[in-house]
Design goal:
two-stranded antiparallel ribbon, 11 strands
Length: 181
């Protein structure tokens, strides 16, 4: 009986790491940024959309076949051009605070009630992040059930919000766990 061993090697240098994707996953690298990740081929093609700004830069990365998955990239000097886009104030987040203080900070910024938000500390490739589960109902009766990752200073000049409906929580947690920044 013969045993066949297969090994995969790749060159790794500090600051230039490459990730390998599992079967059924595709590799993506955000153009001109040190961010890369693997995503399910079922999600469809990624699309970047630039948003008009008053100052700085703001763009989104979305996939055609997901349940509300979106990454929002906000430059440190971003100012919205209109009322349809809101700036998240990452400078107000004290990332070293206990979870309950982080929850209070997010509740104030997002104008949520305590029972609408559950917060825990996380990290993405060694960068501190907040994982927030938001369940709320707006004044029109529309329900929201999302998982958001708030990642200040994620990559040079940008902070990121990664969001999806709760139905994608497991997929999103897996994506951010393996993401390289």
């Amino acid at each position: 009986m013969a045993v066949i061993l297969v090994a995969i090697f790749y060159w790794r240098t500090p600051g230039n790491e490459t990730i390998l994707c599992d079967s059924g996953k595709l590799f993506y690298e955000v153009e001109n940024m040190p961010m890369q990740f693997c995503y399910s081929e079922k999600w469809g093609e990624p699309a970047i959309k630039n948003v008009e700004t008053k100052a700085g830069k703001y763009f989104t990365l979305e996939f055609a076949n997901t349940d509300g998955f979106i990454m929002k990239f906000q430059s440190f000097d971003f100012a919205p051009a209109d009322l349809n886009t809101t700036a998240f104030n990452f400078n107000e987040l004290r990332m070293t605070a206990p979870d309950q203080d982080l929850q209070q900070q997010l509740m104030e910024q997002l104008k949520l009630k305590e029972n609408e938000l559950k917060v825990s500390k996380s990290d993405i490739d060694g960068v501190r992040a907040i994982r927030a589960h938001i369940t709320s109902t707006d004044s029109s009766g529309n329900k929201t059930d999302t998982i958001n990752y708030y990642v200040p200073n994620a990559i040079p000049d940008y902070s990121i919000i990664i969001s999806a409906n709760n139905s994608m929580a497991e997929d999103m947690d897996e994506l951010v766990y393996d993401m390289k920044l």
